[in-house]
Amino acid sequence: MSEKATAPEPARLPLAGLRVVELGHYIAAPFATRLLADLGAEVIKVEPPEGDPVRGWGSAVDGHAVWFSVHGRNKLSVTLNLKSEADKAKLRRLLARSDALVENFRPGQLERYGLGPADLHAVNPRLVIARISGYGQDGPYRDKPAFGAIGEAMGGLRHLTANPGQAELPPPRCGVSISDDLAGMYAAMALVAACWQVKGDPAAKGRVVDVDLVSSVFSLMEGMLPEYGLFGWVRQPQGAAIKTAAPTNTYPCADGKWLCIAGNSDLIFRRLMAAIGKPDMAAEPRFATNALRCENVAELDTMIAAWTRTLPAAEAEAILEKAEVPCSRLYDIRDCAEDPHFRARGLVMQVQDPLIGPVLHPAAPFRFDGVSPRDMVRWTGPAAGAHNEQVFGMLAKEEPKG
């Protein structure tokens, strides 16, 4: 529960009344259900008796993983052994009283448990089942193991994160499990769409949603596929620049930090040149349009970097902001946590976690009138099995939905 120890009325959150069961581990499925839970859904996380393996990741306080405070927030946690027939029967009864299931086992694992879509639709014909996997539920790669890094590699993203001229170094990952997070977001969106369809039609049957890590990353490749199909072009790594806009790059500053500057419209370019003491450059014919600036971008980047190297990043940023040139220092997590805009918007909030004490949480990335960001954090990630009695006691009182 947050510091205020108050939770919003269920009707004020858009997914209030939607019950989602999570058979998730590690990142993708739990991230999907975290979004759904932040939006008000009743999420019941089913864990093995020893808990989600991610509870052992990263830093910990008194044996409780710090990340799980966020990763498991707003969820009810129950424990079941899916190798036990009695526990599988409990899960079937729970799913008979639920709207949706999110899982990210390898394809075929649910079926091996006797919990495949056909089995589950037999107990709840209107159940929406969102399945997240590395490569999808069919295709020649369906049975290959995969983690987030593989989604980045095969989906086309990791090729683009290289720095030109550094062929001896491997292209770096972006620093977070982006393909898991993307797949989780797509799964959450598709699940809500399928639930909307089922809710709107009394005769509708439950749907099976198939989301995978590779296609989630591949979906971000902008115009690269049609460019390849039409012209045979293969986009190459651009480093910090954008090939189609100039000047847009990240420049070194006097204090060793970096400043991202996006000065690519004609008007903003003129303001940028005036701010760095080069107003005459804006009138040069070779810089008259964005297309021409792209042709001469090396000269522009050298000129801008020569200016940023003379100033600390924060000072250069302040000068450009005064000139209304889009820019930002490259923030680390300390910058995010201490930034006045993050704080004013409630993006960073301190909540009280019963397991680890006061802890900073990121706000949900969406806003609704009448609900504050703090209201959306109803409680922090609980201990494994903390809600066994509450959830399984409910089964005897509720009728199946199917």
UniProtKB/TrEMBL annotation:
Top-level taxon: Bacteria
Record protein name field: CoA transferase
The keyword Transferase is assigned to this record: yes
Molecular function terms, GO-annotated: transferase activity
Keyword Transferase part of the UniProt annotation: yes
Alphabetically ordered keywords of this record: Transferase
EC number(s) given by UniProt: 2.8.3.-
